Amino acid sequence: MLTQAQCRAARALIDWSREQLADASKVGLRTIVDFERSARDPREVTKDALRRALEAAGVEFIERNGGGPGVRLRETEQSAPTIPIEDLSAENDE
C-alpha cells in the first residue's frame, strides 16, 4: 500500500523531485503529480512501482497501525567501525 502522503513524504526524505521518482520508477510524471494531488488513484501495480523505487533509495514504509501510515529512512550499516570517544587517541583519531 502507498498513500499520497507517504509518496510526498518519502520524496522529501530523500530529496527527490517528482521527475527523479518518475525516472526511477518508470511511472509517468503526470501520473505521479495527479496521485500526489489526490486527483487520480493509480492501479496497484503503478503504486507498487513507485514504492519499490523509493525503497531502493532508502525509504522504509510504516504500515497503518495505531499511529497511521508513515515513512522513515532505513538505517544503513556504517562503512567503518566507530571508536568510543573515551578510546580515541592521536594514533586512531582520523
From TrEMBL:
SUPFAM superfamilies referenced in this protein's UniProt entry, alphabetically: lambda repressor-like DNA-binding domains (SSF47413)
Region (Disordered): 65-94
Signal peptide stretch: none
GO MF terms held by the record: DNA binding
Top-level taxon: Bacteria
CDD domains found in the cross-reference section: HTH_XRE
UniProt-recorded name of the protein: Transcriptional regulator
Source organism of the structure: Methylocystis rosea
